[in-house]
Amino acid sequence: MQNLKVNEVFESLQGEGSFTGVPSIFVRLQGCPVGCSWCDTKHTWEISLDDETDANDVMQQDFESSQWFTATEASLFELFEKHGYKAKHIVLTGGEPCMYDLNSFTDLAHSKGFSTQIETSGTFEIHTNEKTWVTVSPKVNMQGGYKMRDDALARANEIKHPVAMQKHVDELDSLLSKMDEKNLPLIYLQPISQQKRATDLAVKTCIERNWRLSLQMHKYIGLE
After folding, report:
1. 115-120, strands of its sheet edge to edge
2. Alpha-carbon distance 214 to 224, whole Å?
3. Angle at alpha carbon of residue 19, lines to 200 and 105, rounded to 5°
């Protein structure tokens, strides 16, 4: 069991990938050194002791903040119950959730009848329950200098790759060339920032490769 640094907890619908439309409890963890230039959660990058607060303060916020609170696995489930969450799917996101060992939390979640999902960059070793659905969104040549891990790609149930231009497709091809083509996970292309050029490229490539499209549904309909 370890303490988790939590930036945000909320209930919504999963808007991306295989679980699009599924009611979910999101646990956003604080901390990420990867440095993705188009990241839409940069407020989760730094772990500053000056930003540590308590769960009540974080849960009352309706804006993005770098504040975080410390939680145990058990206290998170108490928080879910306190706020009356009904969803039975938990998404661990960030930040970079795989900076943490998530075995204890995901083991407890599955013992309580929840399904779990981790959204990771694939640059850290993944420690989680064997039943956890792992979504790897590869981050290649980011400013943090972290390399993609072969073991993270091998553990992925789906690869959800952000694209804006052809070089991003080429980067994915390079990663996939190292994997067993007979046992590839589901592959999604996700247009960066819903740009038309990126969307057109993703649609064209998905049709050519028989891959799938992920459109960040939550942003189109105004959900968190």
Report:
1. 69-71, 4-13, 23-29, 89-93, 115-120, 133-136, 158-163, 186-191, 212-213
2. 16
3. 130
* CA distances in angstroms from 183 to 76, 156, 168, 176, listed in the order given: 35, 11, 22, 11
Between 63 and 206, name the one with better pLDDT: 206
Report the CATH number that the domain containing residue 171 is assigned in CATH.
Answer: 3.20.20.70
Asked whether the bond before 122 is cis by omega within 30 degrees of 0, the reply is no
pLDDT at residue 140 above 90?
no
Cα gap 224→16, rounded to integer Å: 12
Number of domains in the chain: 1
DSSP secondary structure string for all residues of 18-60: GGTT-EEEEEEES---S--TT-S-GGGS---GGGB--HHHHHH
Predicted confidence (pLDDT) per residue in 154-198, tens digit: 999 999 999 999 999 999 999 999 898 889 999 999 998 778 999
Query: What is the domain extent for residue 176?
Result: 4-221
Integer Cα distance of 28 and 166 in angstroms: 30
Angstrom CA distances, 19 to 29, 77, 92, 96, 157, stand at 20, 21, 13, 19, 12
Is there a contact between 39 and 104 (Cβ–Cβ < 8 Å)?
no
Which pLDDT score, from 0 to 100, does residue 1 have? Answer: 62
pLDDT digit string (tens) for 36-63? 887 889 999 999 999 999 999 999 998 8
Tell me the three state secondary structure of residue 68.
strand
Give the model confidence (pLDDT) of 18-28 as tens digits. 999 999 999 99
